[in-house]
Protein backbone atom coordinates (compact mmCIF):
# COMPACT_ATOMS: atom_id res chain seq x y z
CA UNK A 1 0.00 0.00 0.00
CA UNK A 2 1.13 3.55 -0.61
CA UNK A 3 1.32 6.14 2.15
CA UNK A 4 -2.03 7.76 1.27
CA UNK A 5 -3.86 4.42 1.56
CA UNK A 6 -2.02 3.61 4.79
CA UNK A 7 -2.99 6.99 6.26
CA UNK A 8 -6.63 6.22 5.48
CA UNK A 9 -6.36 2.78 7.09
CA UNK A 10 -4.53 4.19 10.13
CA UNK A 11 -7.18 6.89 10.68
CA UNK A 12 -9.90 4.21 10.55
CA UNK A 13 -8.03 2.10 13.14
CA UNK A 14 -7.57 5.11 15.45
CA UNK A 15 -11.35 5.68 15.47
CA UNK A 16 -11.87 2.21 17.01
CA UNK A 17 -9.43 2.66 19.92
CA UNK A 18 -9.86 3.77 23.52
CA UNK A 19 -7.26 6.55 23.42
CA UNK A 20 -7.52 7.32 27.14
CA UNK A 21 -6.87 3.72 28.24
CA UNK A 22 -4.04 3.32 25.73
CA UNK A 23 -2.44 6.60 26.85
CA UNK A 24 -2.43 5.39 30.45
CA UNK A 25 -0.99 2.03 29.38
CA UNK A 26 1.85 3.73 27.52
CA UNK A 27 2.54 6.03 30.48
CA UNK A 28 2.82 3.06 32.86
CA UNK A 29 5.58 1.51 30.74
CA UNK A 30 7.21 4.81 29.90
CA UNK A 31 7.73 6.08 33.46
CA UNK A 32 10.22 3.38 34.60
CA UNK A 33 12.03 3.62 31.25
CA UNK A 34 12.46 7.39 31.68
CA UNK A 35 13.61 7.00 35.30
CA UNK A 36 16.16 4.37 34.32
CA UNK A 37 17.68 6.62 31.67
CA UNK A 38 17.33 9.93 33.53
CA UNK A 39 16.20 12.14 30.66
CA UNK A 40 15.98 15.77 31.82
CA UNK A 41 14.97 17.87 28.77
CA UNK A 42 12.12 16.27 26.86
CA UNK A 43 10.27 17.47 23.78
CA UNK A 44 6.66 16.28 24.07
CA UNK A 45 3.73 17.11 21.82
CA UNK A 46 0.25 18.45 22.46
CA UNK A 47 -1.99 15.60 21.27
CA UNK A 48 -4.43 15.81 18.41
CA UNK A 49 -7.76 14.05 19.05
CA UNK A 50 -6.49 10.76 17.58
CA UNK A 51 -3.09 10.77 19.35
CA UNK A 52 -2.04 9.33 22.69
CA UNK A 53 -1.95 11.90 25.48
CA UNK A 54 1.33 11.89 27.41
CA UNK A 55 0.85 15.30 29.04
CA UNK A 56 0.34 13.64 32.47
CA UNK A 57 4.12 13.13 32.38
CA UNK A 58 4.38 16.78 33.44
CA UNK A 59 3.09 15.79 36.88
CA UNK A 60 4.50 12.27 37.06
CA UNK A 61 8.10 12.58 35.87
CA UNK A 62 10.34 15.49 36.92
CA UNK A 63 11.99 17.03 33.87
CA UNK A 64 12.05 20.22 31.80
CA UNK A 65 9.41 19.86 29.11
CA UNK A 66 9.21 21.53 25.73
CA UNK A 67 6.69 21.59 22.90
CA UNK A 68 7.22 21.97 19.16
CA UNK A 69 5.73 24.81 17.19
CA UNK A 70 5.21 24.95 13.43
CA UNK A 71 7.33 27.75 11.95
CA UNK A 72 7.32 27.97 8.17
CA UNK A 73 8.23 24.47 6.96
CA UNK A 74 9.92 23.47 10.19
CA UNK A 75 9.51 23.10 13.93
CA UNK A 76 10.88 25.28 16.69
CA UNK A 77 11.29 24.22 20.33
CA UNK A 78 9.62 26.12 23.17
CA UNK A 79 9.54 25.61 26.95
CA UNK A 80 6.20 24.25 28.07
CA UNK A 81 3.95 27.11 29.08
CA UNK A 82 0.82 28.97 27.96
CA UNK A 83 -0.74 27.59 24.78
CA UNK A 84 -2.59 29.21 21.87
CA UNK A 85 -4.27 27.75 18.76
CA UNK A 86 -1.91 27.18 15.86
CA UNK A 87 -2.06 25.52 12.43
CA UNK A 88 -3.73 22.13 11.96
CA UNK A 89 -5.82 22.48 15.13
CA UNK A 90 -2.75 22.20 17.36
CA UNK A 91 -2.32 24.06 20.61
CA UNK A 92 1.14 25.58 20.52
CA UNK A 93 3.35 27.25 23.11
CA UNK A 94 3.56 31.02 23.34
CA UNK A 95 6.93 30.97 25.12
CA UNK A 96 10.05 32.14 23.23
CA UNK A 97 11.94 29.46 21.28
CA UNK A 98 15.09 27.81 22.63
CA UNK A 99 18.01 26.07 20.99
CA UNK A 100 16.91 22.45 20.30
CA UNK A 101 20.34 21.25 21.41
CA UNK A 102 19.07 21.49 25.02
CA UNK A 103 16.95 18.38 24.37
CA UNK A 104 18.01 14.90 25.40
CA UNK A 105 14.84 13.11 24.19
CA UNK A 106 12.29 13.83 21.47
CA UNK A 107 8.89 12.13 21.83
CA UNK A 108 7.15 11.81 18.48
CA UNK A 109 3.51 11.00 17.69
CA UNK A 110 2.37 9.41 14.44
CA UNK A 111 -0.55 7.88 12.62
CA UNK A 112 1.40 4.61 12.52
CA UNK A 113 4.92 3.26 12.98
CA UNK A 114 6.69 0.12 11.92
CA UNK A 115 8.97 -2.01 14.10
CA UNK A 116 12.03 -0.53 12.40
CA UNK A 117 11.03 2.87 13.84
CA UNK A 118 9.76 4.49 10.66
CA UNK A 119 6.78 6.76 11.06
CA UNK A 120 3.69 7.47 9.05
CA UNK A 121 2.76 11.06 9.76
CA UNK A 122 0.31 13.43 8.16
CA UNK A 123 2.52 13.97 5.13
CA UNK A 124 3.89 17.46 5.79
CA UNK A 125 7.41 16.36 6.83
CA UNK A 126 7.76 18.66 9.85
CA UNK A 127 9.15 16.01 12.19
CA UNK A 128 11.41 14.46 9.53
CA UNK A 129 13.06 17.83 8.78
CA UNK A 130 13.40 18.58 12.50
CA UNK A 131 14.82 15.18 13.45
CA UNK A 132 17.37 15.29 10.66
CA UNK A 133 18.90 18.35 12.34
CA UNK A 134 18.52 17.36 16.02
CA UNK A 135 20.68 14.40 16.93
CA UNK A 136 19.16 13.14 20.20
CA UNK A 137 17.36 9.89 21.10
CA UNK A 138 13.87 9.65 19.63
CA UNK A 139 10.84 7.84 20.97
CA UNK A 140 7.83 7.07 18.77
CA UNK A 141 4.53 6.71 20.64
CA UNK A 142 1.89 4.41 19.17
CA UNK A 143 -0.74 1.83 20.14
CA UNK A 144 0.13 -1.76 19.17
CA UNK A 145 -2.87 -1.66 16.80
CA UNK A 146 -1.07 0.98 14.72
CA UNK A 147 2.29 -0.77 14.69
CA UNK A 148 2.76 -2.15 11.18
CA UNK A 149 5.36 -4.79 10.24
CA UNK A 150 6.79 -2.47 7.57
CA UNK A 151 5.82 0.96 6.22
CA UNK A 152 6.95 2.43 2.91
CA UNK A 153 10.02 4.56 3.39
CA UNK A 154 11.21 7.65 1.56
CA UNK A 155 14.85 8.83 1.64
CA UNK A 156 13.98 11.75 3.94
CA UNK A 157 12.09 9.65 6.52
CA UNK A 158 13.75 9.65 9.93
CA UNK A 159 13.84 6.52 12.04
CA UNK A 160 12.98 6.43 15.75
CA UNK A 161 15.40 4.85 18.21
CA UNK A 162 12.65 3.50 20.48
CA UNK A 163 8.93 2.84 20.34
CA UNK A 164 6.51 3.09 23.27
CA UNK A 165 3.25 1.13 23.13
CA UNK A 166 0.84 -0.09 25.79
CA UNK A 167 3.12 -3.18 26.03
CA UNK A 168 6.24 -1.21 26.98
CA UNK A 169 9.20 0.63 25.49
CA UNK A 170 11.42 -1.20 23.03
CA UNK A 171 14.43 -0.42 20.84
CA UNK A 172 13.44 -0.42 17.20
CA UNK A 173 14.33 -3.47 15.12
CA UNK A 174 17.92 -3.14 13.98
CA UNK A 175 18.79 -0.29 16.39
CA UNK A 176 22.16 -0.11 18.11
CA UNK A 177 20.44 -0.40 21.51
CA UNK A 178 19.80 -4.12 21.37
CA UNK A 179 16.94 -4.04 18.92
CA UNK A 180 18.33 -6.65 16.59
CA UNK A 181 15.77 -8.79 14.85
CA UNK A 182 12.75 -8.74 17.10
CA UNK A 183 13.66 -5.60 19.09
CA UNK A 184 12.06 -6.92 22.28
CA UNK A 185 8.79 -7.90 20.61
UniProtKB/TrEMBL annotation:
Cofactor(s), names only, from the UniProt record: Mg(2+)
The residues listed in the UniProt record as binding ATP, with positions renumbered to this chain, are 3-7, 119-127
Instruction: Please give the Pfam families that the UniProt record associates with this protein.
Output: 5-FTHF_cyc-lig
GO molecular function: any one?
5-formyltetrahydrofolate cyclo-ligase activity
Q: Which organism is it from?
A: Thermus oshimai JL-2
Q: What protein name is recorded for this chain? A: 5-formyltetrahydrofolate cyclo-ligase
EC main class here is ligase
Record EC number: 6.3.3.2
Catalysed reactions, as listed in the record: (6S)-5-formyl-5,6,7,8-tetrahydrofolate + ATP = (6R)-5,10-methenyltetrahydrofolate + ADP + phosphate
Where does the chain bind substrate?
A: 51
PANTHER family found in the cross-reference section:
5-FORMYLTETRAHYDROFOLATE CYCLO-LIGASE, ATPASE INHIBITOR/5-FORMYLTETRAHYDROFOLATE CYCLO-LIGASE
Task: Show which residues constitute the signal peptide.
Answer: none
Please provide the record's keywords in A-Z order: ATP-binding, Magnesium, Metal-binding, Nucleotide-binding
The answer to whether UniProt assigns keyword Cell wall biogenesis/degradation to this entry is no
The record's Gene Ontology biological-process terms are: folic acid-containing compound biosynthetic process; tetrahydrofolate interconversion
Q: Which family does it belong to?
A: Belongs to the 5-formyltetrahydrofolate cyclo-ligase family.
Per its UniProt entry, which superkingdom is the organism in? Answer: Bacteria
Amino acid sequence: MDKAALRKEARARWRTLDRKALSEGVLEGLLPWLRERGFRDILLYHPLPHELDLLPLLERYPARYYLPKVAGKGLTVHPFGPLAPGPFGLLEPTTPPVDPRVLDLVVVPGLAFDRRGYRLGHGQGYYDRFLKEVQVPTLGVIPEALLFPRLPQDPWDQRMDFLATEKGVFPTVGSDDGGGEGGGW
